[in-house]
Amino acid sequence: MDIQSRKRELFKEFAPRLETTSKVSKIYISFLVAIILVGIYAFYLQMSEGQIVTGMRDNVVWGIYEVNFILLVCISYSGAFISGILHFFHTPWKTAIARIVEIITVLSLLIGPIYILLCMGRLDRLHYLFMYPRIQSPITWDIIAIITDIVACFIYLYLTFIPDFAILRDHCEERKIPKWVKKLYKTLAIGYQDTKTQRDRLHKITRIMSTIVIVLAIVAYTVLAWIFSLTLQPGWNSTIFAPYFIVGGLFSGVAFIIVTMFLVRKFYKLEKYIRKMHFKVGGIILLILAMLYGYFTFTEYFSRWFSHKEIDTNLLDTLFTRYFWEFILANYVGILVPIGILFFKKFRTINWVTIASVIALVGIWINRYLIVIPTLETPYVPIQDTRVDYIFYAASWVEIALSFAGAAAFLLMFTLIGKIVPLVPMNYILDGRTPPKKVQKNINKEISE
Amino acid sequence: MKNKQTEEGGTDRRKFLKLGIMTSLTAIAGTSIVNNLAAQEEEGIAKPSGEVMRLLTPDGKIVEVDASNINNYPEAYITPEESRKGIPDRKFVMVIDLAKCKNARKCVEGCQKGHNLDYHQEFMQIKLIQDNPLAEPYWFPKNCMHCDEPPCVKVCPTGATYKREDNIVLVDNERCIGCKFCVTSCPYSARIFNWEHNAKFDDKSQPYSPETNVPGAIGTVTKCDFCPDLLRQGLLPHCAQSCPEGVIYFGDRNEDIVTNGAETVRFSELINKRAGYRHLEHLGTKPNVYYLPAVDKLYELEDGFDVNEEVKERYKNVPYVQELKKQGKI
Hints:
The structure holds two protein chains of two kinds. By secondary structure, chain A is an all-alpha fold.
């Protein structure tokens, strides 16, 4: 079969999704838009009234915005990391999931930093960060890391899109696709004709970018962890925080990818491409990461508990009393249950792996919550002589609404991207038939499905 | 506003530092004072009092000016830019004598009045600290420690908070972006945040200066500033001025004297003899607020509960207080 007719076939297969919008998906999209609108109203309230409308107060000055920020940014970094690895090693299963991973990377990297902006008291002075920068501040490091990462991930995502845009451009004429979308394909394909030189060049650049993206992800993880670990606070000032965040981030990232894979497979009818094998491999990776993450979590709390400095004891007391169930959920259920499920071969099915991933995601969100908030509630100087309602933190509806709005925005953008390009990269499917031989052999040995 | 404060401050306390500060006032805020003078002369507002003072300008010239222009506080407005330099040749320190504190809360109120704060906003908080289970707790006034290694300054991404040569750590709320990283990194919980707009922020009768922290601004961080505006006039900070028990000593490490308004003592001797210490010394922040241990306390602990119900509520989580309540002592 020559490559041109194969391309046409693929296009035919994916085109209906791009052409029509079903009634259900219209309702779904308007539902997402409604959630986002509520979020926008909450944002307006926060801007006009000040942060008094949030649950943050003088002791707990960072709330679930910070938790969402860590979670999303970590997911993004691990997306970059994983997709970088998929490319760099020419993994055969990148075919099915590479695009999903890349879209997750970019979207969470776009939405995550919004939460740190919501944490800021004076958004109108955002430009001061560039007008009066202080390079000594870990926040400045984080800003540099995030901006670099956003740029790199965008370039990377775009590179992987180019061949698909070219296919779409070549074949969309016969279809009743809106004119502006056709034009978009043409512009974005930047004259890519899939000649041998072009293909080789693109492969080379993508490969270079994939290494850069891996390195940037590690740097960005580390700097994010340093925001906490470079302070003197108990529960934050920990030497293992950077690697802990990397492992925890990868754990949440892989879990997130598995859940997305499940949803995409189901709602986009991609059973042919996203197969049980992907969930199985994903499950094994998640198992390894869960064990590593559990190990780090254990070390972190165990050393605090064993040495029991007074200030650490205060923190642990809080965790074991006021946050008892959250602690159990985050650090026992959130880690041990996924390990328990994934440990057994017979549970490594599509549904069970997805269930384990959902539990892992909920667990790690609570874990982040337990890192940020109880620490701020147990400072060195005990909280006294403060108005009573300023002592403990509880997220207000504004914060919750904005959290959901972020999730809705993520889903909406994901859906819209899915309307413009196929969620399974067509060019990889084509590539898959002629991968570099050496690597292909090794991988095949490892995974025989 | 400030002038009114000054009048209330009492004359005997005013003597503090006057000697020291007057002699070096020449070099203090040279630019702004001289600029203001020049402006006044042009407008012909200055009314000569007959008394002439000699000032040293920042570029080394000696000028003669009328004494009525000195100490005229609102004219000596310190801009945010000037406030970064600090008062030359000064190293301000505070000493808090825990043996004398009875939670009278006058320092809290004085500070709130001086900085235009609300009833609920405290730069100065009174904690009830118990060192060990056998020791009786003591009242522990806690403001900003004005550390020599300030963790807050380290982490500020815009340089809105800064350490001055005279030991003072200030916040410029016109530069602050409200990221609150400084709040989380301060081990003394010295910083508070303006969560909402306050009608007081609209009062622009006094130009904003980081030295007064007035007027405040929504969405920015604020904290104890050691009242440099009063120091420039040779006065004690609001808290030290308002304490009826003379708990709070303030002074200059270079001159090695501190005073609570009633008595003036050698700083080094006081710390040596009375075993002065700094809170959380082990963190390496090198604070400039020293504490004298609560030895031979002048007041019963219970005296400190002679406060309104709302304030009492603020200590309800302290185990010792719960114990006292059970025994019916408070």
